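Quick log. Single chain, no ligands specified.
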Amino acid sequence: MSYIHGTTTKMTGCIDNSQNPLIIDSGAHRSIVSIRYLDNHFPNWEKQLFPTKEKNFKSASGKMPSIGTIIKEIIIPHRKGNIRLNPEFVVLDDAHIQGFLLGTDYQRMYGMDIYNSQNRHITIGTNKEKKCSLDIYQISCQDPLEDLLKEFREGQFSNTLTSKQKVSLLKMLRKNSTEFSIGEEPLGKIKDHDIELYQDVERPYPPMDTSLSRKPGNQERN
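-> predicted structure:
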């Protein structure tokens, strides 16, 4: 019996002059993005954060806390004219998402239809002749923090640190790695240091403390 492996659908969009993966998820009610992805690709994202009344979102793995929402303009390149979207993403703390996930909230708003034919594509809006190509990737839940931790295999971090604090610390260590690590080796390997110990057994010996010989019990008994 053969099995069909699950896949997810992604396309590329330009956000803040950089290419980012857009995950088209028809099973997600809200559009979301993770704190870790924003930390790695958008250093000043916190200045664009808006508050939200929804503090938790439910997923198959449980509740995920949210810290707010962020609006990002997305430009989808097309030879017949670029497509511009302005979705609002919920920023989640524990989400392991490599990119921006577009849920059904904005799929319905912009009229996004996915066609699972031989040449898979997506249309946005009323012009069904304006097709955008899709790429299929295996679903990946790889945590960017885990990638960084591979460079610190011998290190341990306090459980009191948040994920954001750990990422900031790892980035700082990587930036200054030449000060304490070997260039060809992973960051967790510390430079070796040679130490020379010289044992002096030649005369003159160090002066003896004569006060020790005068104490009772230190005299030799005949």
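The helical segments are 35-41, 104-109, 144-149, 163-175, 211-214.
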